[in-house]
Amino acid sequence: MAYSNYDASTTNQSKRSNRIYSDLNLSFTKNPATKDVARLFDVQAIKRSVKNIILTNKYERPFNSDFGCNLRGFLFENITEPLMVLIKDRVSMAIEKYEPRVSVEDVIVNDDEERNGLNIMVSFAINGVETPVTVSTFLQRVR
Question: What is the pLDDT of residues 78-104, one digit of tens each?
Fold first, then answer.
Protein backbone atom coordinates (compact mmCIF):
# COMPACT_ATOMS: atom_id res chain seq x y z
CA MET A 1 0.00 0.00 0.00
CA ALA A 2 1.40 3.37 -1.00
CA TYR A 3 1.14 6.46 1.16
CA SER A 4 1.31 9.99 -0.11
CA ASN A 5 2.32 13.22 1.58
CA TYR A 6 -0.09 15.13 -0.66
CA ASP A 7 -2.46 17.36 1.28
CA ALA A 8 -5.05 19.45 -0.54
CA SER A 9 -4.81 22.28 1.98
CA THR A 10 -1.13 22.81 1.20
CA THR A 11 -1.87 23.43 -2.48
CA ASN A 12 -4.75 25.83 -1.89
CA GLN A 13 -3.47 29.37 -2.44
CA SER A 14 -6.86 31.05 -2.05
CA LYS A 15 -7.17 34.13 0.17
CA ARG A 16 -10.85 33.41 0.74
CA SER A 17 -12.04 31.75 3.92
CA ASN A 18 -12.40 28.00 3.61
CA ARG A 19 -15.84 28.15 5.25
CA ILE A 20 -18.60 28.01 2.70
CA TYR A 21 -22.11 27.63 4.01
CA SER A 22 -24.68 26.29 1.57
CA ASP A 23 -28.38 25.56 1.60
CA LEU A 24 -31.04 24.61 -0.92
CA ASN A 25 -33.00 27.37 -2.58
CA LEU A 26 -36.53 26.58 -1.45
CA SER A 27 -38.05 28.06 -4.59
CA PHE A 28 -36.56 24.94 -6.26
CA THR A 29 -35.31 26.81 -9.29
CA LYS A 30 -33.05 24.88 -11.62
CA ASN A 31 -29.35 25.66 -11.82
CA PRO A 32 -28.72 26.28 -15.54
CA ALA A 33 -25.24 24.75 -15.48
CA THR A 34 -25.83 21.58 -13.46
CA LYS A 35 -29.58 21.13 -14.09
CA ASP A 36 -29.91 20.44 -10.36
CA VAL A 37 -31.73 22.42 -7.68
CA ALA A 38 -30.10 25.82 -7.17
CA ARG A 39 -28.23 26.42 -3.93
CA LEU A 40 -27.66 29.44 -1.72
CA PHE A 41 -24.23 30.21 -0.30
CA ASP A 42 -22.73 32.02 2.70
CA VAL A 43 -24.87 34.97 3.92
CA GLN A 44 -27.91 34.00 1.84
CA ALA A 45 -27.80 30.45 3.24
CA ILE A 46 -27.65 31.75 6.82
CA LYS A 47 -30.52 34.16 6.18
CA ARG A 48 -32.59 31.25 4.83
CA SER A 49 -31.74 29.19 7.90
CA VAL A 50 -32.84 31.97 10.29
CA LYS A 51 -36.09 32.42 8.37
CA ASN A 52 -36.76 28.66 8.51
CA ILE A 53 -36.27 28.69 12.28
CA ILE A 54 -38.80 31.53 12.64
CA LEU A 55 -41.41 29.89 10.40
CA THR A 56 -41.17 26.36 11.84
CA ASN A 57 -43.55 25.14 14.54
CA LYS A 58 -42.67 22.69 17.29
CA TYR A 59 -43.25 19.02 16.33
CA GLU A 60 -43.06 19.94 12.64
CA ARG A 61 -39.67 18.31 12.13
CA PRO A 62 -39.53 14.55 12.56
CA PHE A 63 -37.03 13.38 15.19
CA ASN A 64 -36.42 16.99 16.27
CA SER A 65 -39.68 17.98 17.91
CA ASP A 66 -38.22 20.96 19.80
CA PHE A 67 -36.96 22.76 16.66
CA GLY A 68 -38.55 26.11 15.73
CA CYS A 69 -40.28 29.09 17.33
CA ASN A 70 -43.88 27.86 17.48
CA LEU A 71 -45.33 31.28 16.60
CA ARG A 72 -48.51 30.30 14.73
CA GLY A 73 -50.36 29.85 18.00
CA PHE A 74 -49.86 33.54 18.77
CA LEU A 75 -51.43 34.77 15.55
CA PHE A 76 -55.00 34.59 16.83
CA GLU A 77 -54.27 36.07 20.25
CA ASN A 78 -54.92 39.69 21.11
CA ILE A 79 -51.69 41.46 20.28
CA THR A 80 -50.53 43.22 23.44
CA GLU A 81 -47.16 44.50 24.56
CA PRO A 82 -46.46 41.48 26.85
CA LEU A 83 -47.28 39.11 23.97
CA MET A 84 -44.90 40.96 21.66
CA VAL A 85 -42.14 40.66 24.28
CA LEU A 86 -42.85 36.91 24.53
CA ILE A 87 -42.60 36.55 20.73
CA LYS A 88 -39.30 38.47 20.72
CA ASP A 89 -37.91 36.19 23.42
CA ARG A 90 -39.01 33.03 21.62
CA VAL A 91 -37.45 34.14 18.33
CA SER A 92 -34.22 35.20 20.00
CA MET A 93 -33.87 31.99 22.05
CA ALA A 94 -34.66 29.72 19.09
CA ILE A 95 -32.11 31.40 16.83
CA GLU A 96 -29.43 31.30 19.52
CA LYS A 97 -30.16 27.62 20.13
CA TYR A 98 -30.37 26.35 16.54
CA GLU A 99 -28.12 28.72 14.58
CA PRO A 100 -24.62 28.78 16.12
CA ARG A 101 -23.19 30.79 13.19
CA VAL A 102 -24.94 34.00 14.31
CA SER A 103 -25.49 36.16 17.38
CA VAL A 104 -28.82 37.97 17.63
CA GLU A 105 -28.62 41.74 18.04
CA ASP A 106 -32.27 42.79 17.91
CA VAL A 107 -35.75 41.42 17.24
CA ILE A 108 -38.56 43.79 16.28
CA VAL A 109 -42.19 42.62 16.21
CA ASN A 110 -44.90 44.84 14.73
CA ASP A 111 -48.62 44.20 14.49
CA ASP A 112 -49.87 44.95 10.97
CA GLU A 113 -53.64 45.34 11.28
CA GLU A 114 -54.14 46.27 7.64
CA ARG A 115 -52.53 43.07 6.35
CA ASN A 116 -53.83 41.03 9.31
CA GLY A 117 -50.59 39.62 10.65
CA LEU A 118 -47.26 40.12 12.39
CA ASN A 119 -44.11 41.54 10.85
CA ILE A 120 -40.94 40.12 12.46
CA MET A 121 -37.54 41.66 11.75
CA VAL A 122 -34.38 40.05 13.14
CA SER A 123 -30.97 41.77 13.09
CA PHE A 124 -27.98 39.56 13.74
CA ALA A 125 -24.24 39.39 13.26
CA ILE A 126 -22.67 36.47 11.45
CA ASN A 127 -19.55 35.15 13.16
CA GLY A 128 -16.56 36.46 11.22
CA VAL A 129 -18.51 39.12 9.28
CA GLU A 130 -18.42 42.75 10.38
CA THR A 131 -21.67 44.04 8.89
CA PRO A 132 -24.98 43.19 10.58
CA VAL A 133 -27.60 41.29 8.59
CA THR A 134 -31.37 41.73 8.76
CA VAL A 135 -34.08 39.20 7.94
CA SER A 136 -37.74 40.10 7.95
CA THR A 137 -40.74 37.87 7.55
CA PHE A 138 -44.49 38.31 7.73
CA LEU A 139 -46.78 35.89 9.56
CA GLN A 140 -50.31 36.23 8.26
CA ARG A 141 -53.49 35.18 9.99
CA VAL A 142 -55.26 32.76 7.69
CA ARG A 143 -58.56 31.05 8.36
Answer: 889 999 999 999 999 999 999 999 999
Distance in angstroms between the alpha carbons of the first and the last residue of the chain: 67
In the structure, what pLDDT confidence band is assigned to residue 8 with cuts at 50, 70 and 90?
Answer: very low
Confidence category of residue 13, pLDDT binned at 50, 70, 90: very low
Q: Would you say residue 65 lies in a domain?
A: yes
For the chain, the C-alpha Rg in angstroms (whole number) is 19
pTM over 0.90: no
- 6 occurs within a structural domain: no
The CATH number for 123's domain is 3.10.450.40
Residue numbers of the domain that contains 107: 20-140
- Between vectors from CA 31 to CA 30 and to CA 37, what angle results, nearest 5°? 55
Q: How many domains does the chain have?
A: 1
